[in-house]
Write a structure and sequence with these properties.
The structure holds two protein chains of two kinds.
Chain A (H helix, E strand, L loop, with lengths): L2 E3 L4 E5 L4 E3 L2 E3 L5 E7 L5 E7 L5 E3 L5 E5 L4 E6 L8 E8 L6 E3 L3 E6 L1
Parallel strand pairs in A: 2-12
Antiparallel strand pairs in A: 1-4, 3-9, 5-6, 5-10, 7-8, 8-9, 10-11, 10-12
Chain B lengths: L3 E4 L2 E4 L5 E7 L5 E7 L5 E8 L5 E2 L10 E5 L2 E6 L8 E8 L6 E3 L3 E5 L1
Parallel strand pairs in B: 2-11
Antiparallel strand pairs in B: 1-3, 3-8, 4-5, 4-9, 5-6, 7-8, 9-10, 9-11
The chains are: A mainly beta, B mainly beta.
């Protein structure tokens, strides 16, 4: 069965430190992988995607993610966290045989000044 | 990417009534998706709406409770019928912009049923 796991409900990082939000997936074949961010009382905003090509993907707001096929992971990273990065982050995967997204449970990222 | 206008942004409704949520897209899209999200939690797909055909509902969601219209390639509505407090949630519409692009979301409708 297809699935996405975000093992951490919450990640706490001090401002200026690097951050990582973890995501692993299970899907048949090669997946499309996405990261979205949701700020309080807002809709979801697209951050970045992996479709094919370079395993390191750069996205919005200085975020990047690395696709690791052997570990079936797609962790979100940022070299230096900002307080304004505090939000709810979702990893999603789309099986290439259909159009639906499989969503992770979400990780609340808290950046402390 | 597509821009979605979703209305209303929030509403407080009496139990037993119905609410229709509208999503207008600024470009033609084949597939639209309707989700439900409890605050702070993940998204649950309600149905996929294709223009010219009936919506495809996920397990646990039925057309009588969540009728969907998709009259053209830029517009869709979701109705939450005969509401109960358990229907209180955030409802989101989404569109895909082609195989190589991400999915765009409306700003959401926060529904409270009292």
């Amino acid at each position: 069965a297809q699935s996405v796991a975000q093992p951490e409900d919450q990640v706490n990082v001090a401002e200026g430190n690097p951050l990582t939000v973890k995501c692993t997936y299970s899907v048949s074949g090669n997946p499309y992988l996405f990261w979205y961010v949701q700020y309080p009382n807002r809709g979801l905003q697209f951050l970045l995607k992996y479709i094919t090509g370079d395993n390191l993907v750069k996205g919005s707001y200085g975020f990047e993610a690395e696709f690791n096929k052997s570990q079936t992971s797609f962790h979100l990273k940022k070299p230096s966290a900002l307080v304004s990065d505090s939000a709810l982050y979702f990893c999603a995967v789309r099986d290439r045989s259909n159009y639906q997204l499989i969503w992770g449970a979400g990780t609340k990222l808290i950046i402390k000044p | 990417s597509a821009v979605i206008s979703q209305k209303p942004s929030r509403d407080i409704c009496q139990r037993g009534t119905s609410l229709t949520i509208q999503c207008q897209v600024d470009s033609q899209v084949t597939m639209m998706f309707w989700y439900r999200q409890q605050p702070g939690q993940s998204l649950t797909l309600i149905a996929t709406a294709n223009q010219g055909s009936e919506a495809t509902y996920e397990s646990g969601f039925v057309i009588d409770k969540f009728p969907i219209s998709r009259p053209n390639l830029t517009f869709s509505t979701l109705t939450v019928s005969n509401m109960s407090p358990e229907d209180s949630s955030i409802y989101l519409c989404s569109v895909g912009a082609g195989l190589n692009y991400g999915y765009t979301f409306g700003s959401g409708t926060r529904l409270t049923v009292v």
